[in-house]
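The pair is set out directly below:
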Amino acid sequence: MANYYSDHPEIAFHLQHPLMKRIVELKEKGYVDAKTYPDAPVDFEDAIENYKRILEITGDVAANIIEPNSESVDLEGPHLENGRMIYANKTFENLDATIKAGLHGVSMPRRYGGLNLPNAVFSMLSEVISAADAGFQNIWSLQSCIDTLYEFGSEEQRQKFIPRVCEGESMSMDLTEPDAGSDLQRVMLKATYDEKEDCWRLNGVKRFITNGDSDIHLVLARSEEGTKDGRGLSMFIYDKRDGGVNVRHIEHKLGIHGSPTCELTYKNAKAYLCGDRKLGLIKYVMALMNGARLGIAAQSVGVEQEAYNEGLAYAKERQQFGQKIIEFPAVYDMLSRMKAKLDAGRSLLYQTARLVDVYKALEDIQRDRKLEPEERQELKKYTRLADAFTPLAKGMNSEYANQNAYDAISIHGGSGFIMEYKSQRLFRDARIFSIYEGTTQLQVVAAIRYITNGTYLQIIREMLEQEVAEELRPLKVRVEHLVELYEQSVNYVKESENQEVQDFLARRLYDMTAEIIMSLLILDDATRCPELFFKSANVYVRMAEEDVIGKSVYVKSFIKEDLPSFRAAEPATEE
């Protein structure tokens, strides 16, 4: 029987990373839960075995329930009835299966009914479910919104809402409005305090809200009258049981049809302040978005894997000119690149998740006691690293998912354009990944300061100090040369002292940064497990070489006088 976890040993490999021991140690807080909860691990090995069991269960549900339902869900989609969103029929089956399997509230502490899993394992679960149906992964993975309520809400709010999510109730984050897309400072949904009821009332419209008719919403709203920027925004909790919010419209989308995207109307809806006033955008949305971006990176890797699977299976079966098309150089070149992007992108995803795990676990410990000086330094280090890696993981994997889905169709030829083949759905689903939760261009904006201040270069130099297997050393030498070109390119842009030049060339510097880091990650993976990653390391480093050298030439030959010729021509005006 198929299993979307155990069929791909590359996922389990990342449970063996040396940093996992520290993560589990911090997450389990000395394994104290074992005294109270029978399912809690007693040591590191027990924890890893527990993670594997949960992943096996998820892989089974994904392969044998969610994936077989995916075509039906794609064709039916959700619909609107009397102001309420109704999922596709098979989506209800998927939800029932994941609830019965205990796959909700996975990141929450056991005292609230959660599984206390680290982000690295949650990302693996997300990848596996996304490979089966990326649209359903959206609905399922939005349970991670509860992390923000756990981190910033009151204990009373935690007691009220977290157990419900652990039991399978759904969540959404209501941020975007018709006039406030990426520019969330323009959010105008109004929050007014109701002294009589000791609660807040929300009025206005939210748009493009994923899973918008969920049970529990985190809502960004303007609490400070007369303000027009982010300092006037706060975060609120809306409980569907209280009423006051209706679905006005469900968007008809290109892909991820099973994931409802809703326009909501708030009419005097009762809500509760989450955390402190005025920090909604500045602090809480940033935490929400970073978690969501890691989720999209995992969603992307799932589709990268499934696109590769579809392309490989078709190439092994399809015959042309008397031979299987996998034997054609043009086809196996595409497949080898797809696999290399998948393996390198997955490595970047789980490295990012591990970095997040360390600082999140330390922050959680800090709620109970004062951190030791070494722990404070560790928290500072991993917070900075996670902040630097997150935009790379989200941006690059969302782009790779699009590229792998595109190539899967190419391998299928004309059949790939036919709706009966899965590759067309993967292609449609993948397109949104590089758009929502911050476009790739916004990931570049998030990363550029770490490029220009030398943070990434320092990370790369530290990674270069790691030993690689003897047979991989020639590849490492090639990467070292790429690092020299990268440093020259960054210095060239900085020395221009021109913000417009920096903005124009930022994407190229971003791509170079990510490709070098992924090259070093895949070399490390291939050193530790050559049977899984040696081929991908060989292909990926050569791909990165091809790209970084070309971008280096482009950057270093660019002058600020070139900018006017790249701007869109202005329409001629009559005298």
Q: What stands out?
A: The two ends are 74 Å apart (CA to CA). The first helix runs from residue 9 to 13.
